[in-house]
Prior knowledge:
By secondary structure, the protein is an alpha/beta fold. Helices cover about 30% and strands about 30% of the residues. The strands form three sheets. Strands 1, 4, 5, 6, 7, 8, 9, 10 and 11 form a nine-stranded mixed β-sheet that branches. Helix 1 runs antiparallel to helix 2. The two termini are about 35 Å apart.
Amino acid sequence: MYSERVHVMDHPLVAHKLSIIRDKNTSVKDFRELVSEIGMLITYEATRDLPLTTMEVETPICKATVPTLAGKKFAVVPILRAGLGLVDGVLRMVPSARVGHIGMYRDEETLQPHVYFCKMPKDIADRDIIIVDPMLATGGSAAAAISEMKSRGCKNIKLMVLLAAPEGIEKLVKEHPDVDIYCGAVDDHLNEHGYIVPGLGDAGDRIFGTK
């Protein structure tokens, strides 16, 4: 159905937790915690291709050669502000990751996204990147964020979202065919206001309690 670059989670825990955060009556506290938990579960899949090397340890029984991460540099980049809700889940899985931040605003006339803030680790071009944002709706912000990271020399970029709309996936696959997309679920469509249907509303408002 989609490009081989699109990875939709097929896991009961992800499906269950997504169902809870879709509920408009879910509290801010529970919503925030579940977003982080789902982020952690999707990170598990998104890091499946991290390279391994070996090290020697001494177990209570004997010495053994065991696998360990090869030390490849890794960074998580949330799109402000809603993307902040996913950072903790990623860092719980990859505690040594660096964190960059990218802020976007939409031009009211052209509706095109623009970068207003971008603060990255100095060696960002040498790192594997996961850009995080709860929703992939029109795909405009995600595409612009990916372009910004590419302009800084980043080559291995992934996008991680809770929910995606077919329209957003189509835009990203077309504009950035080299970027893998990891999402908890793909919903039906966008409504006339650009919201994902059935979706979960405005993720930023629900994470930070500003609705």
